[in-house]
Amino acid sequence: MHNKPSLRYAVLILNRPISQEEAFMKNFWEKATLRITVDGGALRWDQFLTRLPEEISNKMKIPDLITGDFDSITEETLQKYKKKGCKVVHTPDQDYTDFTKALKELNNHCQEHTIEVDNVIAIGQASGRLDQILGNIQTLYLAEKQHLLHPETKLYLMSGDSLSWLLEPGNHIISIPEETRKHNRAWCSLVPIGETCHSVTTSGLMWNLDNQSLKFGELVSTSNAFDGSDTVKIKCSHTILWSMKVPSLTGE
């Protein structure tokens, strides 16, 4: 399986500061098939727009959907985007995070409007509250286990200059951007979440694994790096979390 970005994607803005480079974010948002802000993520997006020149921010596309239990968004911001014509969906269920519920609403929206997306990219931050970081990882797993999205749609989590996604059991080929290969501090990681991954074999890493087991309390492959190859190949027996640095996301 090749993990390469597609032109058909949805972007979700979670309730964390947007640290990505401005030019990247403008282009990324405008070219998305669907644009969704999740609760306080609407406020974060509004704050991002205020950093842009007014003639540019006024031309930016509005969110297609604003979802959440609305305990983080201000009433002023919510009403502002309602007046602009944004669809607003209140999701008060406290058994799931706003991120998880937003994926359900995204899928409903796609089915209702016959929209197809190949990738969903959620923009957040892997810093701050550890429980929220783990909650975001939990959502990655729920999307797979509970089929929250179309079976062919892949979910990614973008945090600062890193990109994370799940690798299901099987063989994977990941294309490594040249900027990442040449960056002297580019890192990557393979982390088992919730269960042991009994067998992992890799190529293209600085410290490759050869039919090794990954398990908390034993070996976990964090702070790994790349050997300069165009691709990284991974074969895993169980689902693992792959993360990697993409320097251009923050303009490095």
TrEMBL record:
Residues 170-241 form the Thiamin pyrophosphokinase thiamin-binding domain. It comes from the Eukaryota. It catalyses: thiamine + ATP = thiamine diphosphate + AMP + H(+). This is Thiamine pyrophosphokinase. SMART domains: TPK_B1_binding. Its EC number is 2.7.6.2. Gene3D superfamilies: Thiamin pyrophosphokinase, catalytic domain (3.40.50.10240), Thiamin pyrophosphokinase, thiamin-binding domain (2.60.120.320). Pfam families: TPK_B1_binding (PF04265), TPK_catalytic (PF04263).
